[in-house]
Amino acid sequence: MNMMSEAAVEKALEQKMTEANYKMMGKDVSVYYGEKRALFDVNLNVRENTVTALIGPSGCGKSTFLRTLNRMNDTIDGCRVTGKITLDSTDIYDPSIDVVELRARVGMVFQKPNPFPKSIYENVSYGPRIHGLAKNKADLDVIVEQSLQKAGLWNEVKDRLLESGTGLSGGQQQRLCIARAIAVSPEVILMDEPCSALDPIATAKIEELIHELRTNFTIVIVTHSMQQAARVSQRTAMFHLGLLVEENDTDKMFTNPDDQRTQDYIMGRFG
Amino acid sequence: MSQVVSATTTAPAGAATRRDIGVKRRYAAERRFRAYGIAAISFGLLFLFVLLNSVVSKGYTAFQQTMITVPIEFSEKVIDPTGKRAENPNILVMANYPVLARDAVAKVLGVDVKNRAAARQVSELLSDSIRVQLRDIVQANPSVIGNTVNVTLLAHGNVDSAFKGQIDLSVAESNRKISDQQLTWINTLADSGALSKHFNTGIFINGASSRPEAAGVGVALIGSAYMMLIVLVLSLPIGVAASIYLEEFAPKNRFTDLIEVNINNLAAVPSIVYGLLGLAVFINFGGFPRSASIVGGLVLTLMTLPTIIIATRAALKAVPPSIRAAALGLGASKMQTVFHHVLPLAMPGILTGTIIGLAHALGETAPLLLIGMVAFVADYPTTPMDPATALPVQIYMWANEAERAFVERTSGAIMILLMFLLVMNVGAILLRRRFERRW
């Protein structure tokens, strides 16, 4: 009893000490879809300028957790979130928090590339335009160019900015979606299996991009590929059946995990 | 390992006695299905052909009208025997103009107008509407009085039918609408070039008339156009707004389910019920005038709304959720998501639904009968509050007329209605092309 409370205190202290480093913190996060509970008291913190990978078998709740971070779950009927999630120590589920503002700070890239069926330019400029980030057309042009450059797409599309975004290849479309997300200068970018619909070459490009983006953004990525998690992330969290099994440095996770289930999953023994 | 190898080596051996997996049967079924499809389409095309053929073969003659061109002497003796037209302009209104025309035709035919029976037969060659035609000429330019001018006069409906060969000449003369003497005259006039067929502009611009040669769908066209405008202006925004609310914003609960069921049922309500509703609400309670296109437009709006709402909701549902997620993920509000992304993508579907609804409304007759749009309206309606008829109602009314010349006009009016529809559809298709986008 004494030992446990001591450990709890120690943990609390550690949390307090490093709170400044945590961009987002999830405390006792549970998610229900109607009667069904999809997440069970998950405590997971996301460090600033770090790539955090969420891994686990299908249906383990990693995407659900990701979507709680910018309240995309709000759009699902009957979805209920309990617990506390903070962004820079503000509770994002507080009634005073505006979800539009939150999503401008926490951007998202989806599994399937989903550019708007509009021009490449319009795709990237849409976010800055609705948030009023550019005063005039020249500002907007600058934002579009910078975003496309950061997404490593500028050289490929600079001559055809007015062509449809849906005419690009799958990998280019996904990078366009990333450019679109970073055009609104978010602080955190959530990526939900961004490479699962792409070929290995496009995947390599995106992974390289994630590496570069890390200097400016905090990234949380859900992936089914162990190799990808190992390659791009510094921290890895393993989910199983709605529970957070283990969260650790990626190196340690893939060499010497604390939990047997992590070991089994990484070795391919289940999932 | 050895097991795996043996498994793969046995496979080709089994190929010799391959199991019948019914490939032939499946292809036969497919061929059968295709044949059914082709048969169904041929059946439809056949009926379309029969329909169009019957309408066009009966109706194309309606776009030609027999006219008689004769030199008319605007005799002062007939128009103004007392010479007081300067003091009393009514004299020019009341003058006996048909006599002028009769005398002119009689002169060409060499008929003595003193023979009253022959003179009556001559005047029966001409439409009664020439009275108005000649009066307008004289009133516009009183200086023609005393001069002789070539005027193209509308022939009587019976002459028109006879000249087009639509009157059965084997019938006894006494039972015919046109006498042998008149037929001879018609041939004489046609040979001299005085009587000939002209393009019938009257059918497009004239109002109602009991004389088939002077009857046209002008009023009906304007009435239908007003109603389509009212239906479009009211039902498109209301329908789209309702669908967007129901589809994107409304909570999903018993109440919205009930609304949905009701909308689906309303789409199936017989249109005459809407006519009764319009009669009760707009005319009896709202105090709108009867026979007015505004009431027709409102009734047809009510009738069209369910169609537009159902089509719009289907179109909104068909927009991929990934587009909504993308916009929401960027921090667009729900409203921005819907209006910037979802609605433009749903636009082609919405337009399709709207055009189906409008086409339906354009051809609707039953509710208009109840609100008094089945009326004899000869003057153009200047506003939607004025009495008017509608194209389908005009067709219905002409179909009830006894004269032979109204038969071709009924088919002619059907062709005009179909053209109206075609123009609307082409407009909608062009609009849809503009909005169509891939995703």
Which terms summarize this structure?
heterodimer, A: 271 residues, alpha/beta, Rossmann fold, 4-stranded antiparallel beta sheet, 11 helices, 10 strands, 25% strand, B: 439 residues, mainly alpha, MetI-like fold, 3 domains, 3-stranded antiparallel beta sheet, 65% helix
Can you put this structure into words, describing what you see?
- The complex is a heterodimer of chains A (271) and B (439).
- With 271 residues, chain A is an alpha/beta fold.
- Chain A has helices at residues 2-18, 62-68, 99-105, 120-131, 137-150, 154-157, 170-182, 200-213, 226-232, 250-255, 260-266, and strands at 22-33, 36-47, 51-55, 79-87, 90-91, 106-109, 188-192, 218-222, 235-240, 243-249.
- In chain A, the strands form 2 sheets. Chain A has a 6-stranded mixed beta sheet, with helices on both faces. A 4-stranded antiparallel beta sheet of chain A has the order 2-1-4-5, covered by helices on one side.
- In chain A, a hairpin with a 2-residue loop joins strand 4 and strand 5.
- In chain A, helix 4 (120-131) crosses helix 5, helix 5 packs across helix 7 (170-182) and helix 7 packs parallel to helix 8.
- Chain A is globular.
- The mean pLDDT of chain A is 87.
- Chain B has 3 domains: 2-59; 63-207, no CATH class; 218-435, MetI-like fold.
- In chain B, 65% of the residues lie in helices and 5% in strands.
- By secondary structure, chain B is mainly α.
- The radius of gyration of chain B is 33 Å and the shape is elongated.
- Chain A binds chain B through residues 70, 72, 75, 77, 100-104, 107-110, 112, 114-118, 126-127, 130-131, 164, 166, 177, 180-181, 184, and chain B through 252, 320, 322-333, 336, 340-341, 345, 437-439.
